[in-house]
Amino acid sequence: xxxxxxxxxxxxxxxxxxxxxxxxxxxxxxxxxxxxxxxxxxxxxxxxxxxxxxxxxxxxxxxxxxxxxxxxxxxxxxxxxxxx
Length: 84
Hints:
By secondary structure, this protein is mainly alpha-helical.
């Protein structure tokens, strides 16, 4: 699936969070997984849309606690704006 705008981006993330919760993952486990995914994406994927470029720039300058905060905020964003 190609993601080309903010709504698709948030809905894709929201779907992943919903599936993780459906499999019994706690929010802490989801946040921890989000940090791991963020580290992988930062190291291996060229951002393709503005939202991903912003996240990459933030990830680059963030230390570990800040990366955890970014991941936690993304989960909250999914809860508020995503369609489940």
